[in-house]
Amino acid sequence: TSVSSAALPPVTISTMGKIENDFNNGLKLSYTDANPVLITPDGAIKFKDGSILATANGLTNQIPIFSPWVADGSNIKFSTGNVWIGARRPTTGIHSNYKLSVDGKLVAQSMYVIAGNSTAWADDVFEKDYKMQSLPEIEKYIKENKHLEGIPTSTEVQTNGIDLGSMDAKLLRKIEELTLHLIRLDKENKEMRALIGK
Length: 198
Hints:
Elements: E1 2-3, E2 11-13, E3 19-23, E4 27-31, E5 37-39, E6 45-47, E7 51-56, E8 59-64, E9 69-72, E10 75-78, E11 83-85, E12 100-102, H1 135-145, H2 154-160, H3 164-197
Parallel strand pairs: 11-12
Antiparallel strand pairs: 1-2, 2-3, 3-4, 4-7, 5-6, 7-8, 9-10
């Protein structure tokens, strides 16, 4: 069966389920799987399985018939594998298990990082049994290690990057500990001024 018009080259559908269309003297789209092509009463063409081979200038690309992008109501989801945007993606190391990789700038008006568990945040700092380092202990650690305890070093960040949710929790912990130290120092200062005033 052939279908053609004055504007377009002919499309040929063979009885073996092969579709061919020649464009510009050399581009051919063909369905080469042995399974038949189904032409529905409304004129739609459906493939049982296989793929379309697109050939141009001696180069052939395989185009999957079934896309992993699936419509879900007004949304769209990727049903299998991972997604990456850009020229590069992590293939080894701690980030090779990515679901979405972007090689370049990512811009968003808002972004939420959902904590994996209820202990991921730093509210335990305000519990009565929380053991907090003293200021002399913090000073000693900084002199020996050149960074705050529990915070990754610049080398670690350059190598592994940072987990936004985890890093926010670590920074919040330091802020909360610093707040408690300031409250304690303020109380001690007031007590000392009261003694001096006497």
